[in-house]
Amino acid sequence: LNAARRLQVADVVIPLRELAHTDANVAYHLWVLVFPIVWTTLLKEEQVALAKPMISLLSKDYHKKQQGHRPNVVQALLEG
Fold first, then answer.
1. In Å, how far from its chain's centre is CA 11?
2. What is the C-alpha separation between 30 and 18, in angstroms, rounded?
3. What are phi and psi of 2, to 5 degrees?
4. Residuewise pLDDT in 10s, the chain (80 residues)
5. Are 30 and 16 spatial neighbours (Cβ–Cβ below 8 Å)?
6. Do residues 71 and 31 touch, judged by C-beta distance below 8 A?
7. Cα separation of 76 and 47, whole Å?
């Protein structure tokens, strides 16, 4: 119990980040799980400000290279 009290966010985030860098499925599932939670905490103005660059990102031609792969960036962004 004392060890759990000393646990910090970084103790969880750092290993998850390493896993996400090595496994596309982990990255995909983390995004789909975490993004909606974070999105709901944003103010409406922040959501609008973030939506614009995300729309721009989704419209990039280089995503065509991944369209046959699952999961892919576009799929993850839209599902999140």
1. 19
2. 12
3. -65, -35
4. 677 788 888 988 999 999 999 998 999 999 999 999 999 999 999 999 999 998 888 788 777 777 777 777 778 787 88
5. yes
6. no
7. 18
Residue 52: Cβ-neighbour burial (10 angstroms; 0-12, 13-18, 19+): exposed
Return the sign of the alpha-carbon dihedral for residues 3, 8, 9, 13.
negative
Crossing angle of helices 24-41 and 9-22, rounded to 10°: 130
Type of residue at 39: W
Measured CA to CA, the distance from residue 53 to residue 22 in angstroms comes to 26
R_g of the chain, CA atoms, integer Å: 16
Q: Please list, in sequence order, all residues whose beta carbon lies within 8 angstroms of the beta carbon of residue 16, skipping any fewer than 6 positions away.
A: 26, 30
- State the maximum Cα–Cα separation within the chain, in Å, rounded to a whole number: 51
